[in-house]
Write a structure and sequence with these properties.
YlxH/NBP35, 7-stranded mixed β-sheet, ATP-binding, two-stranded antiparallel ribbon, 32% helix, 4Fe-4S, metal ion binding, 7 helices
Length: 232
């Protein structure tokens, strides 16, 4: 183990000076959890929003934040019904948008001129945006910070893990669907977590019980396949 600093090959590298800044910024956040998926379209962002709503609804005194780290495909503003809201910058940093009294959200979607604007950035610029979100958003006291990541295992994921490990990253939740083509990528996602010593808190098999209301056929297969992944 190399203090949690990695380059794009997963190899040890020099620590980024922003890591200490992020550690201090997130010192009031109890649990920091990455939401991962190997493939797009499995419902990762929906699961993230439902998890956020569920945690916030359990206790009115529990504060939950969601960071939409999918820079090129920010969907949380729409999913959570706050598209078009504005973020404000003050001396203490960016203020997230409040979905409810105890559920807040930060997304690059709030910074775009139009929801249809495309973010056409290379890896370093996307990583810089993630770093800026983690170091400059003023979340206040949080019980949970859920980080909705893009699909796959790319630069953004390495950056998020690198920046958050020093701040006390609790682990990751991996979202999949029962199809074998999705499970193939989930195995890679779990391998990614193991390689970076990131605890897999659980695997969510989304849509496993969905049956077509017309033909009564299970659209995604038999389901319960993620249970076997959890045994590995």
């Amino acid at each position: 183990m190399s203090n949690g600093y990695f380059n794009t090959n997963g190899e040890a590298s020099r620590p980024d000076p922003a890591i200490e800044l992020i550690k201090n910024r997130l010192s009031n956040v109890k649990h920091k959890i990455l939401i991962l998926s190997g493939k797009g379209g499995v419902g990762k962002s929906t699961v993230t929003s439902l998890l956020g709503h569920g945690l916030a609804a359990r206790n009115a005194n529990m504060n939950v934040g969601i960071l939409d780290a999918d820079i090129c495909g920010p969907s949380q503003p729409r999913v959570l019904g706050v598209r078009g809201e504005q973020v404000h910058n003050s001396g203490s940093g960016w203020s997230p948008v409040y979905v409810t009294d105890n559920l807040s959200l930060m997304s690059i979607g709030f910074l775009l001129g139009s929801p249809d604007d495309a973010v056409i950035w290379r890896g370093p610029k996307k990583n810089g945006m993630i770093k800026q979100f983690l170091s400059e958003v003023d979340w206040g006291q949080l019980d949970y910070l859920l980080v909705d990541t893009p699909p796959g295992t790319s630069d953004e994921h390495l950056s998020a893990v690198q920046y958050l490990l020093g701040a006390g990253l609790s682990g990751a939740v991996v979202v999949t669907t029962p199809q074998e083509v999705a499970l193939l990528d989930v195995r890679k996602e779990i391998h990614f977590c193991n390689k970076l010593h990131l605890t897999v808190l659980g695997v969510v098999e989304n849509m496993s019980l969905f049956v077509c209301p017309n033909c009564k056929v299970s659209v995604t297969g038999d389901g319960n396949k993620a249970h076997n992944l959890n045994k590995r």
